[in-house]
Amino acid sequence: AKAAAEANAKNIPTNAAGQTADEILAAIQGKVVLFEFDRSEVQTIFRDLVRLNADYMSLNTEASVTLKGHADERGTQEYNLALGERRGYAVKDALVAEGVSPSRISVISFGEEHPVDPAHTESAWSKNRRVEFSY
What is the 3-state secondary structure (H, E, C) of the chain? Predict the structure, then answer.
């Protein structure tokens, strides 16, 4: 609340929750949207993260984002590249629905090439099915 009051006193734009762009960036740094096996729909539990990213972009009009889609190791390389791309575009669509211009969003898929957890377990696979935000 104090930071929001100081931001308002200095005419620094904030989102509806009173967060500045810098505060939002700190809150979203390193957070990812995770996906169910073989799915590309953005789950309800990740809507707040998408909304915060949209808030950041609305407050920082110079920002552009690259959405990096990933898959777990199961499936062919070609299939996983396509799946990672579908996941990236699903997050892009969610950002656009929150008011972000599509021209400020790019999508790239890494398929299964960059796992965050190289283990061959369901726990590892669930971490690898993701979209990362890169500003």
Answer: CHHHHHHHHCCCCCCCCCCCHHHHHHHHCCCEEECCCCCCCCCHHHHHHHHHHHHHHHHCCCCCEEEEEECCCCCCHHHHHHHHHHHHHHHHHHHHHCCCCHHHEEEEEEECCCCCCCCCCHHHHHHHCEEEEEC
